[in-house]
Amino acid sequence: MEKSLARYIWSNTRRQQLWILAVVAVSMVPYFLSFDLPKQIVNGPIQGDGFENANARQTFMHIAYDIPLIGHVEFFEGLQLNRLQTLMALSLVFLALVVLNGLFKFYINTYKGRLGERMLRRIRFQLIDRVLRFPPVHFKRVKSAEIATMIKDEVEPMGGFTGDAFVSPALLGGQALTALAFIIVQNFWLGMIAAAIVGVQAVIIPRMRKRLLELGRQRQLTARELSGRVGEIVEGIGTIHGNDTSNLERADIATRLGLIFSIRYDLYQWKFLVKFLNNFLAQVTPFLFYAIGGYLALQGRLDIGQLVAVISAYKDLPGPLKELIDWDQMRQDVQVKYQQVYEQFNVEPLIDSRIQEIPAEAVGPLTAALVVSNLAVSDDSGARLVDRVSVEIRPNETVAIVGPNGSGAEAFAEALGRIVWPDSGRISIDGRDLLELPESITGRRISYASADTYFFHGTLRDNLLYGLKHAPLTDPGYEGEAAQDFKWHAAEALKAGNPTLDLNSDWVDYNAAGATGPDDLLTAIRPVLDAVLISHDILDLALRSTVDTSVHVALAGRIVDLRRSLRERMKDENLDAVVVPFDFDNYNPQATVGENLLFGTMKRPMMNNRRLAAHPYFQQLFRDTGLSNDLYAMGLEIAENAVELFHDLPPDHPFFQQLTFMTADDIPTYQALLQKLQSRRFEDATIDERSMIIRLSFAYIEPRHRFGLLSDELMAKIVGARKQFHENIPDDLAALIERYDPERFTSSASLMDNVLFGRIAYQQADASDRIRTIMSELFDTLDLFDDVLSIGLEFDVGSGGKRLTMVQRQKLNLARALLKRSDYFIFNRPLPALDQRVQDQIIRNVVQGLHEEGKRPAIIWVLSNARLAEIFDRILLFNRGDLVEAGNYPELSEKNGMFKELLS
């Protein structure tokens, strides 16, 4: 990076700066003429100079020049105008100059803005590019929030300054000098007064603003540190809650905010002192002009036109001068910020940019051995983790790495995966240092997975396929206006030093995953998901999701077949009573009162419980059927039972998990409400109180809550109200409520609800797991499993994948590495969150799956269970950073060494 911001700007925008400086130079001509014209108007047609008699005329716009070697050349002989005509002509010329000067300003400012935005885009991209090339160890020393703040906020002023870096001093300085020169031409002494004031402003104000720069630098540093601290709080919120240190963090934040406040308060005081002094000096000059200029006019040594022109010219002098002083402050401020950015991002050694370039040719397989020579790895404190290890790992070989915690096995695997860089020694393939190989080779032909997982905000599919997105492989095929937009954006990207890679292209390397395209990608993915035992997790996510019927047409079209097959399968296995189907003419005791009344689902977020309850048609239905009183009485019984049973229990008691209609925090509220509604009459309660009581009845399920509140008569009344509700439902409600239909897919319901078309009986133990197992088999039987899997893959994993469990994240991380079908697989204890039995099963699945059909990539696995090393060709045993034993399982298990101790 350039150390000087001015050099950085000039080196990247030289041609544009020269062009705009030329435009600025040309703009000074009409700017100067606009000063002289008021004097000509006042002295000429207004005061009558040259128009002493009524018929006098003067030549207007006579254009002629004496050109060397050519002589006198007349371009336009001019027009003969009388006094009034001359006044109008000069006024129109003044108006034209005003418009022309405005157009020059418009063009210059627009050009500067575009230039600044390009530079801002360039510097942000370059900083992120440098982040992508930081050495791995550097990320342990910086906070991500601070880096993000610098790229997002602290470089923002640099973009605005780019357009002003050379243009503003030229434009503003030119305008100020033009106005000052014009004043001096009119009267030397008035010009000297203006020059003296300008000199004071140019010397004193910048000196005073140095304090502002220092305060601004302190403010920026403290704000950046605050951002980093807030990021730490967000990332470590679990640790804070677990250790009761929230008040410590509040004290820390309050102290930091207090420091920022004091700096900003000092900054405001100094800033407005400088502003006061600057404004005072600017206003002293007009006073001197009026006093001294007026005196000279009274003495006849200065005509009125000259005085008016001088005052008019000075009116335009403080503006450019003030802006020029502001520009100098901005220059110093931005240079300080740029210096901080330079220090933060000038990291050595950076990864060579050529290592991350897109390859021109297809990347072939790695057929040479992985050779480790005298490898030494240390941590940040200098402690040696791996000490002078030499070993060769052949292609197609499976190697188990074992050792106690802290043995150096993990650090050795990290070095093989380029996660850490060696202190000494080297790792090479076919004579080439691993660190010098392009990432297009190591990122495709070498896969690494560990317990440290990170997933980007997006779908599960996006994160699973992330390891296959190396370069754009297909053309999006833009046409018409879209093609023109792409060309324009590509041209702008080039001007800003950005690549023209199109994010809308298809980046997935299907061949690397063993597929020919998106159509058979799921076929290639599924064995990997099965191997890491995550298929059923994704199936569960799919069953809880709603389905886009425009995408999954086949699944929606076969929903009736699925329902029928599920009923037949359950009948064959004597599970008829597990699911109670929906029936329009009957009450479903396993569903809530609200579900029975609605007999359908609401299309959220357009419709919800609150909006439905407030709808006039729904309220009228309650009045006509008398359900208001019935459900109110039912809600009172529920509230009394819940308060009586649970008011003495702690908020974390497991009973509250079964209480779907009320939380522990609601108990005191309903306790007070019941005391108020002692009369129990519907008419005595307010609308809000009725709503609170009736809401309880809507979530009631008799077999689950067992308060004995649902009589046959009330259930029949609810079914009757349901029929009346759907019989006369208005169009606006019908568009937002999907009625259950046994012959149709309900798009606003989950996939599981669609397949079940009913509710699982609460009395049946493990009913949900049994139903899911049957559904999974049915999806396979009906060739719908891939469709269901694709629905689960659309699940949003959240920030950092936090919507997934730790077990799911580690399984997904392993699956992402396996999908690349690399030549070398390095697994560094990737599944510590799983119990040992499941870990062993996944390891066997992976080794067996990678070596089927004649394929034998090299597998290097740091094991937690030493006994599992028997399925590997070779074992490397580490202890205290040294490779202490090496050999196959029979050799080491029979030898009285450290490996035998690990087995015992």
From TrEMBL:
Domain named ABC transporter is located at 370-902
List the keywords (alphabetical). Answer: ATP-binding, Membrane, Nucleotide-binding, Plasmid, Transmembrane, Transmembrane helix
Give the transmembrane ranges: 18-35, 87-108, 189-208
Q: Which InterPro entries match?
A: ABC1_TM_dom, ABC1_TM_sf, ABC_transporter-like_ATP-bd, P-loop_NTPase, Type_1_exporter
Membrane-topology descriptor: Multi-pass membrane protein
Q: Does the keyword Protein transport apply?
A: no
**Which cellular components does GO assign to this protein?**
plasma membrane
Chief localisation class = membrane
Q: Which Pfam families match?
A: ABC_membrane, ABC_tran
- Protein's UniProt keywords contain ATP-binding: yes
Q: Which Gene3D superfamilies match?
A: ABC transporter type 1, transmembrane domain, P-loop containing nucleotide triphosphate hydrolases
Question: Which sequence ranges form a coiled-coil region, renumbered to this chain?
Answer: none
Which residues belong to any copy of the ABC transmembrane type-1 domain?
75-326
Report the CDD domains cross-referenced here: ABC_6TM_exporters (cd07346)
Where does the record place it?
A: Cell membrane
Q: Name one GO molecular function term.
A: ABC-type transporter activity
Q: Which domain of life is it from?
A: Bacteria
Specify the protein name: ABC transporter ATP-binding protein
Native source species: Rhizobium sullae
Where is the organism placed in the taxonomic lineage, from the top? Bacteria, Pseudomonadati, Pseudomonadota, Alphaproteobacteria, Hyphomicrobiales
